[in-house]
Amino acid sequence: MNRETFIKLRAKLGKTQKHLAELLGVSLKAIQSYEQGWRTIPLHVERQLYFLAVNQRLDTQARRSKDCWIVKKCAHKKECPAWEFQAGQLCWFLSGTHCEGTADTSWKEKIAICRNCDILTSLL
Predict the structure, then answer these.
(1) CATH number where 8 lies
(2) Which residues are in the HTH cro/C1-type domain (predicted)?
(3) pLDDT digits (tens, 9 = 90+) for 30-41
């Protein structure tokens, strides 16, 4: 995640730097450093920030209509944790999903795919 996306998501959440630091379990100085571009945003912070942003605005019915296996016409859905836990809007949050036909090997590889995926980007 780059600093501009981080700033945009904090604004979307309507949180001060201090409040966001508390939500993410990091220091105020860390938030300031992320926004200034002095520090790289850790993957676990990125993951939590996306989770907060997505869950702030969607109601249950809207989530069901955009499940990843429907949007992507997935042939591997029954092997995927997103299907198993009925979390088609949270596929980007779950490790081991079968995006692009194979299970992800690491969170870093997974989030690189998800940052450009219609499922996540349509929620933000």
Answers:
(1) 1.10.260.40
(2) 6-37
(3) 999 999 999 999
Q: Are residues 75 and 112 in the same domain?
A: yes
Which of these, 47, 76, 56, lies nearest to 11 by C-alpha position?
Answer: 56
Q: Give me the count of residues in the chain.
A: 124
Summarised one tens digit per residue, pLDDT across range 72-93 is 888 888 888 888 888 888 888 8
CA distance 78 to 98: 10
Answer left, alpha or beta for residue 42, where phi above 0 means left and psi between -120 and 50 means alpha: beta
- Do 67 and 112 lie in a common domain? yes
Map residue 54 onto helix, strand or coil.
helix
Query: Which residue is it, tokens 């809007």?
Result: 89
Same domain for 53 and 65, yes or no, is: no
